[in-house]
Automatic annotation (TrEMBL):
<dbReference type="GO" id="GO:0008360">
    <property type="term" value="P:regulation of cell shape"/>
</dbReference>
<dbReference type="GO" id="GO:0008764">
    <property type="term" value="F:UDP-N-acetylmuramoylalanine-D-glutamate ligase activity"/>
</dbReference>
<keyword id="KW-0963">Cytoplasm</keyword>
<dbReference type="InterPro" id="IPR004101">
    <property type="entry name" value="Mur_ligase_C"/>
</dbReference>
<dbReference type="GO" id="GO:0071555">
    <property type="term" value="P:cell wall organization"/>
</dbReference>
<keyword id="KW-0573">Peptidoglycan synthesis</keyword>
<dbReference type="GO" id="GO:0009252">
    <property type="term" value="P:peptidoglycan biosynthetic process"/>
</dbReference>
<dbReference type="Pfam" id="PF02875">
    <property type="entry name" value="Mur_ligase_C"/>
</dbReference>
<dbReference type="GO" id="GO:0051301">
    <property type="term" value="P:cell division"/>
</dbReference>
<protein>
    <recommendedName>
        <fullName>UDP-N-acetylmuramoylalanine--D-glutamate ligase</fullName>
        <ecNumber>6.3.2.9</ecNumber>
    </recommendedName>
</protein>
<feature type="domain" description="Mur ligase central">
    <location>
        <begin position="111"/>
        <end position="291"/>
    </location>
</feature>
<feature type="domain" description="Mur ligase C-terminal">
    <location>
        <begin position="313"/>
        <end position="429"/>
    </location>
</feature>
<keyword id="KW-0961">Cell wall biogenesis/degradation</keyword>
<dbReference type="InterPro" id="IPR013221">
    <property type="entry name" value="Mur_ligase_cen"/>
</dbReference>
<keyword id="KW-0067">ATP-binding</keyword>
<keyword id="KW-0547">Nucleotide-binding</keyword>
<dbReference type="Pfam" id="PF08245">
    <property type="entry name" value="Mur_ligase_M"/>
</dbReference>
Amino acid sequence: MGKVYIIGLGKSGIAAAKILKKNHEEVTIYDSSNSPSLEIIKNDLTKENIVVKLGENLPLNNVQNPDLIVVSPGVPWDIPILEEARRKGIKTIGEMELAWQYLSKTPWIGITGTNGKTTTTALVEAMLKMGGIKTSACGNIGYAACDLALESLDNPLEWVVAEISSYQIESSMDLSPRIGIWTTFTPDHLARHKTLENYHRIKASLLQRSHLKILNGDDPYLHNFGLDLDWKNVYWTSVRGKEYLLGDIEKGVYLEDSWIVAFKELIAPVSLFKMVGKHNLQNLLMATAAARLAGVSKKAIADTISSFTGVPHRLELITNIDGVAYINDSKATNYDAAQVGLDSVASPTILIAGGEAKEGDDTAWINTIKEKCVSVLLIGEAASFFAERFEASGFGQYEIVETMENAVKRGRELASELKAKVVLLSPACASFDQYQNFEQRGENFRQICYDLTQKDN
């Protein structure tokens, strides 16, 4: 392969560099940022003979042109330097696609969708492991894909379970899962993908390349899309029952008389499942479909269902203080995910929302706020914008508190005054105005909640 340039000194970029270096490639990582934390990472990688250029954009000229450019997921696919590279015939791929080149002989389960990806991925991984299948999750959950590829060189896997975002799909032209799952589809990431049609095309391309395809038939967009769909090997799910399935019942996974039914077989009573919310039942059915297609026994699936409690930062119960539940839903980074999260918890609720606002339709979210919230505490850049939206809709029970610490402390005060049952962090925003990612935001919420409980003791 020769000379490789990598854009982005994050988890994915570092993982790509390490596997390429192991394959004796000449690797240079470029990152336009130049912070003290990145300097520390640079020093560590230099010890491994990986060149890191901070505060620089990669050069393209006839003398230094690389044989390959690998792009981290956070780097837009249409920036000028990448478009120029493609015009010059330089192979340009994403980190996920690079991992596929090393792992293509192992069957993949690829999970994509606007919401529900992480929980479905975690469920699939847990079911396969319970069934004795050697697997690990990667992508937006677990390992960076190239880290998993590097580990598998000495310790081969039987299946790869990958949460794959639209950012990763658009830079992965050959990645072809054995099983593809499409969880939901609503407007998101339009600042990057420009149009809903382009966003749909990117998501659909992964399913088109998947041998077996699982789609959530309860999602309105996917249901309508499926009415005219001529794909083969499509499996549909529905929490509403078999009469709502698209396609043959033999390829359906659904609920009937409070039981999970997969391909006309009873799997387990749904009462075993501990997670709240109809959306999590949808995630459960899609995971069950994938697990059965991968050869997992009914008993292993039932055992997983009874023991699975969820994933961090998605409707995660952190603590109870004075009878009030403090719930971390930091992964709700858009209106639809936040509306689903709010709809899943008890009321009256105190909501913490805000961050870096995204485009989208906030109507259902605001309507649910009106129904369930006695107060909304607003943080981050979006606070003033949300306040304007609330005022326009006739909702006035909000406060701009700016920071997470202020929000949690004020939430506790209001919970006592307003007899709230829940203080819910469900931001409906990206995190990048105040945090590196939604995980850091959720961990900050967790720590502040723990600090409050320590003060009580």
